[in-house]
Amino acid sequence: MQRERNKTGLFNKKWLLLAVIPLTAAIWKFTDDNTGGYYRRPLSLSTELAANFGEVRENHFHMGLDIRTNGKENLPVYAAADGYISRVTITEAGYGKALYVTHPNNTITVYAHLNHFMDGVEKAVRAKQYQDECWQQEIHFTPGEFTVNKGDQIALSGNTGTTEGPHLHFEIRDAVTGCNINPLFNGFNVTDHIAPVINGLYWYNKTGSIYNAKANKINLRGEGDEYTSSEQTITVNTDKICFGIDVADKSAEGKFRLGMYKALLYVDGVLKCSFAVNRFNARDTRYVNACIDYAAWVRYSKCIQLLCILPGNNLPVFEGSPGNGVIKLADKKTHNIKIVVGDAAGNTTAVSTTVKYDGDVKMESSHPATAQRLLPNKANHVTTPNARVYFSSKALYDTVAFNIKEETNNERNNASAAIFLHDATVPVHDSLKVQIKTTLPLGSPLRAHTVILLTNEKHSLVIKGKWIGDFMEGYCMELGTVQLIIDTISPVVNLKEGNNAVFTETDKALHVLYNDNLGEAAFFRAELDGHWLLFEKKGDCFTYYFDEHCHKGKHRLKIIAGDKAGNITSQVFTFIEQ
């Protein structure tokens, strides 16, 4: 019970018993709990990974290890080495509740998706939340406040933030450079005898932009750690190509597909491109979109990693690579291709083929006359009568024949033409500035309830913009269709347990459900008998865990919530705690 934890301390015997729950032995293992290396395992369980360092995710590489908790929450989490708790963060998405420990060897370990921090930290965080009247926090601590020894219990695992189930996300960071480091090469022993599996091999026309080229699948044969193409020689109709590869790495007992650690491309025995995820900074992780066939990712959720370096890709995973991976075939000779992929344990799988150019060079496909050629590493802008779009010099990874068009839409809640910004199969690296002209007259009260709606094959996103004359300006990080939308519908909030609900000592929490026609809440405030009350957010559910701020008796709970269009709702509930 929440109340019992507050009275007796976070880590009482009942919670410590969870540490001895057995978990099926896994292939991926860290060092022994207290010996054998600088770091110990953050959980006292045999460690099975749900995700590894460098795995491809939406708009980012995975920056650490996801350690399975066998579907359970509230398992004890231990400090991986001596140090001090230097920081905690609490966010709705991302890492949820996360704790950071700084160590004497100039590294920082990160423990994310937690349910609770150790007692002293939890108390300090709660005090700051109530002082600020804000659930989301980023709090820094000095070296003397919360010193920990290797193996000290520092938290309980959970399922907070962006997760698909309970697990512990664990990272090692360089405290000097800020780079994330692959934990499997920094003090964690790995026992793994399973070589990566090659699920697919593809070639692309690279006479022009990768965004004009389709994936041409190469049929493979073989098994184990050696593959060849079904055709003895792959004949292509372009004199410049590059390759993409779909790889899965698994442990013997783990059901999860892990990401590729490294790949090497050889042409006629000479290394032409190499890729390895050893370390990189979180600020660069969005470059993942330059390392994959982005169209295949968007349309089919298929991960094909490119073995070439696009002009606008500045991610250091290609450091030491002798070339950009583009293979020149103008001599019309047969060339030997070998690709070797490997995991962090040193297991490798190779695929070999030969390739030859035969025919006329296949140039870029034609584009609409209205398309504008946008270049990587250069600021670009596109305008129409009712829209202006600005790209920074870092926005594009390769050349884009950008197509923009307008379409009038006279539906009642529309406040502009629909602006089609190319399509969502071309990624952008940073925010695009978009300005859209409205059809609403100056001074219209509806302007206060107007937002930008972005829709594409992946998402429907609401963006709160600002007015610049007759244009609303906003920022987005995806392409698609943008339009100004009028929203005057207030959100609805309900108490899940019902108004006048009665709570007993066995109840842990109460839940407020939020619903709005345009997505999640932009604003939420709860007051218990006139005083701010701490609610945690996950999706459209806000949860209050009973604590010392709610005593026995009848209470008045006031909820004030709002959406991005400025619509506010206020609702009062009553409940009784016995």
Which term fits the overall shape? flat
CATH architecture of the largest domain: Distorted Sandwich
Q: Helical element count?
A: 4
Cα separation of the termini: 15 Å
Radius of gyration: 27 Å
Major sheet details? 12 strands, antiparallel
Helix content: under 10%
Provide the CATH superfamily of the largest domain. Answer: Glucose Permease (Domain IIA)
Give the structural class.
mainly beta
What is the fold named in CATH at topology level of the largest domain? Answer: Glucose Permease (Domain IIA)
Mean pLDDT equals: 90
Number of E-type strands: 46
Which blocks of ≥5 consecutive residues have pLDDT under 50? 1-32
Into which percentage range does the β-strand content fall?
A: 35-45%
Number of domains: 4
Q: Briefly, what CATH class of the largest domain?
A: Mainly Beta
Short structural description:
This protein has 578 residues and is mainly beta.
Description of the structure:
This protein is flat. 38% of the residues are buried. Strand 19 and strand 20 form a beta hairpin. The chain has four domains: 2-185, Glucose Permease (Domain IIA) (Distorted Sandwich), CATH 2.70.70.10; 197-357, no CATH class; 372-486, Chondroitinase Ac, Chain A, domain 3 (Sandwich), CATH 2.60.220; 492-577, Immunoglobulin-like (Sandwich). The strands form nine sheets. Strands 1, 4, 5, 6, 7, 8, 9, 10, 11, 12, 13 and 21 form a twelve-stranded antiparallel beta sheet that branches. The protein has a six-stranded mixed beta sheet with strand order 16-17-25-24-19-20, with no helix packed on it. It has four helices and 46 strands. The chain is mainly beta and 578 residues long. The model is unreliable at 1-32 (pLDDT under 50).
